[in-house]
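The records we work with from here on pair a chain with its fold. The integers have meaning only within a learned vocabulary of local backbone shapes. A complete example follows; check for yourself that the lines match position by position.

:::
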Amino acid sequence: MGNEAMHHVSANHSFTFDMWTGIHALRSRDRIALIDGDTGEQTTFGELERRTNAAARHLRAQGVRPGDRVALLTLNSPQMLEILVGIAKAGAVSVPMNTRLAAPELAYILSDSGATLLFASTDLLPVAQEAARDTAVEQVVVVATADERARGVANDYRDAVAAESEDAVEAVNDLGDVAMIMYTSGTTGRPKGAMLTHGNTLWNAIQHNASGVGLSQSDVSLAVAPLFHIGALGVYTLPLLYWGGTNIITERFDPVQWGRLVEEHQVTKAFAVPTMWSAIVRAGVPQQFRLSSVNEAKSGGAPCPLPVLDELREAGLRFSEGFGMTETAPIASGMTPEDAEEHSGSIGRPAMHMSFRIVDPDGRDVPQGEVGELIMSGPQVFAGYWNKPEATAEAFRDGWFYSGDMARVDEDGFYTLVDRKKDMIISGGENVYPVEVEQVLIRHPGVLDVSVIGVPHSHWGEAVTAIVVVDGTDEPGDELASALDERARRELAGFKVPKSYRFRAELPRTATGKVQKNVLRDSYAGSSGQVHR
């Protein structure tokens, strides 16, 4: 590190996301920032600063300018985090994409965001190239998989970084600038890009030290959930980069590997979705490995089954609970491990710099204990939806963000979500909006009507279930269900494909014609239907 880097840190006091590695490289350059959980390779903060400088210089050499969008279709890796920092250093906006989406879904995100460059893992290159066709993407940069990194296989990203200068780049960002656009499904059937600013990421990192156990440079986090999700990225991974700790990153989740890495590296922070925690218990990990180093664990995406939590707690893990959204970067509320056990089912109290209200449809506060819509305000609330001014205007009123979640608050200030205003399904930690699936299924010529609901499931949390009304030309049964399943798999990400198809003569509707999904959920709760997965 030279004087140039020191000048950039001292001259710019906004502490945007792109500056964090440089600050730690100056303070303690030899401290370990990243560990590749698949190959064992370690990266110090000094090395991370130099590599991200080179990544930023490569982007600028390719014509990427401040404000341009750069997309990622990458599996988890230390390189993915490097790229995110490099994009920010170039003054550009990163667009992480769900690796489980189908090519048409990815193409929409690329087109909507206007991304001009795409990073893609080798295994995902075919779908990336298909999705990029007919979009503004001018170049696809290949990023190595874990196997390729272990074998030292050359790839676009490695060669590009090696060819560039590692000198510091000029800081160009302010806290109000957009750092990333994270797409979240919308009720219109098309995903919406939530614009998260550098200030959002900074305050999210700060919030981690205002709730729960907190973070420090001595912490070690194990990232196994997909980093294209705000949960895995915004819970521990980016905050720990800010606080100067160590992030271990694995390409895919394997419960036994998870346990081995926890014991080997004395991991202190662990985030995973409920299906992962369940797999850890089923694989006997608590009996095989010492997990007591984990002083804080979080589960995200959906409630974690209590028996799973109990077994993990017996193994020494301390779970803290909370609530967050893509639109809040994500930490919005939380509680200590002790409160989590005493107030099971609650999302806790608002994070230190967040304000909550529960309101009626007219925006008036409802009495304590009554159900209303949860609205929020604070420095972590996103800047709005990319290219969707109407959706942004609907989400914000009088400075408050309307979450779409129905909730209540008790006399001790603990909030509980009671329903989702929108009929979102959470299956295996993934958000599924029924209208996306319904729009695919309704196009089959044999379908007269369809409604998609979530049915409670012991493993997935909720199983995506399609309730189908057929016309008189088709006999409902396995043949039609197979045809619907084939169509869904062709056009949708795997986690959105219904796990069962049920047939009935008509859908229950209100007097105004709206489908009564609550009636359907009550009718099919616990029903297995025709399973095709």
About this structure: The chain is about 35% helix and 25% strand. The longest helix spans residues 45-61.
